């Protein structure tokens, strides 16, 4: 039954989203005013620019669940992402996750005119949020590996979601890693980061 399948996909996607947010909230606790100008693993972005991008991304994820459409402007405010980017991100993340946890499974989300299932949207958000959580910790000079249990689930999703046309615009080219690299390291390398290989 389509409704049951959609519900299962949404529950799984929201679960991934919750775990990605939990990991990233831990990285955000490392941010201090002194490191805002530090370079991040994201090309041409310092930490402050990365946090601004993350605020925009979370706003879009919240809009996706609230109105089933992603536009160019954030649907609501949870603080000032310029003067207080970390508290704004924390508030946005918790509110957005609560909205997805109460969402219905069958309503498609329009992203740039393309209809996507809620499961696809939440899984995409989980990949982005987790990887940017790693970026934040790196920029702060206090690395925090993405938990391998989470990376095991995100890695195949990243392979489905990131296409050759996304490079080098949205993502850098993949970085080679040894065959024995951990799942988190393979995920980061696939998305153009240079993780230290354990």
Characterize the structure shown.
The protein is mainly alpha-helical and 198 residues long. The chain folds into two domains: 2-144, dinb family like domain (Four Helix Bundle (Hemerythrin (Met), subunit A)), CATH 1.20.120; 148-198, no CATH class. It is 55% helix and 4% strand. A three-stranded mixed sheet has the order 1-2-3. Helix 3 links the parallel strand 1 and strand 2 (109-111). Helix 1 (2-28) runs antiparallel to helix 3 (85-101). It starts with a helix and ends in an 8-residue tail after the last helix.
What average pLDDT do the residues reach?
84
- The CATH topology of the largest domain corresponds to Four Helix Bundle (Hemerythrin (Met), subunit A)
Level of helix content?
55-70%
What is the CATH architecture term of the largest domain? Up-down Bundle
The tally of structural domains comes to 2
State Rg: 16 Å
Side-by-side strand order of the widest sheet:
1-2-3
Q: Strand portion, in percent? A: under 5%
Q: Extract low-pLDDT stretches.
A: none
Structure class: mainly alpha
How would you characterize the largest beta sheet? 3 strands, mixed
CATH level 1 name of the largest domain: Mainly Alpha
Shape: globular
* Oligomer category: single chain
Count of distinct strands: 3
- Please provide the ordered H/E string of secondary-structure elements: HHEHEEHHH
With helices defined by DSSP (H or I, 4 residues minimum), what is the helix count?
A: 6
The CATH homologous superfamily of the largest domain is named: dinb family like domain
- Through-space gap between termini: 44 Å
